Write the structure tokens for this entry.
Amino acid sequence: MNTLNNFDTEKKAAAGAARYNLLRTAQAILAKSGLDWKEQHRTCWCSRSLKRGDETVDVYRNEARDGASFAGLNRCGNLHTCPVCAAKVAELRRKQLSAGMVNHCDNGGWAYLLTFTFPHTSDEKLQDLLKRFDKARQRFQNSKAWKAFKKEAGVIGVVNSLEFTVSQENGWHPHVHMLAFTKSKKAFGEGQPVNNQGDLDSLRIQELKLLWVQVLFKCGLGEQAKLTDMMNHALNVRGGEKAAEYIAKFGRDEKWGASSELARSHAKTGAAGEKWGVLHFTPFQLLVWAGEGDAWAIHRFREFGEAVEGKRALVWSPKLKAALQVEDVDEETWIENDEPQPEQVLVGSLSSEQFAVLQSRKCVAQFLEYAATCANDQVDIDDFIDGVRQLDKIASGSLLAKREFSGGKLVIFT
Ligand SMILES: [Zn+2]
């Protein structure tokens, strides 16, 4: 039964569709002029490349009218730079992590959430920071002390998630959330949390913190003068409830999902100081501001896209999925699979020409929201497209399509 009221349903539909606006902004930022389509960033053609020979795109909506989706498009699968693919894969990962956590706890196990970070300033380049951060993480994970710690604490495996936020004051803030699955509770020798954020402390945890800080020094991150600060903040350990909370929220987009609202509030407040405050933003939030023409956000997202190229966002330690009885799903297949879900109904189809009309007027998100909340059949779809066709072209309507006679893919509707 659908328990959402109309307002929530519409909000959910709008938030889902808005990802396509953010994707379009990301594509504009990542595209390099003068390059052939094959040489562009994978995200540049995400959801604009037609899968089928017949070159139509099917439109499905949820029965609850809280979302709609396309079938028949190739996806990029880049979870750092693509808001559409990231949302889809986050759903899978959330399911896997939740199932793993439940199975593990049912069998008497426990989990911890460790957050690894380091001091940084706004004038440091993300690419340089990441290089040193990667080195520090490798050094830490390969150290005898960490391996001994894992044995003593009964850690059966870990999942590492590389995440990013950015602020105007302090620049990029890469950090890693590590879920450590242990055989039992009290594995870190901890007592009750020491504050209301749920931070844990113990002799073992202090030793780990010192180990991480020493590794940071060796990799040129942080400095002796900041030692106390680093001991307090560079590594933090929280217990099972916080790990479960983290999993439940994993990849959810409440902070940026309602991006149309965020964009409206941006227009309202205007002032840079008010807008940024001291808050940290996720890369996808940057896309909201970038879409409004904010130069700082555009620059930062471009820097981000280049720095994270080829970086894996989530890594499970070997055999952990099997140990937690989690199904090992191939993520690429999952992203590409657009078979309708049981809760979805077919509204109709778009011809490639109609899809290009939506692209060139930047109306893909509005169309999906319409399909989710109002459209019933092919006539409704065609009416909407005819309306959009009256608008001026404001962007490229390029699509990629397979053409038999050319023996490969072609850019159509430029
Ligand atoms: Zn994508």
About this structure: DSSP finds 16 helices and twelve strands in the chain. The pocket of zinc ion is lined by residues 43, 46, 75-76, 78, 82, 84-85 (CB under 6 Å).
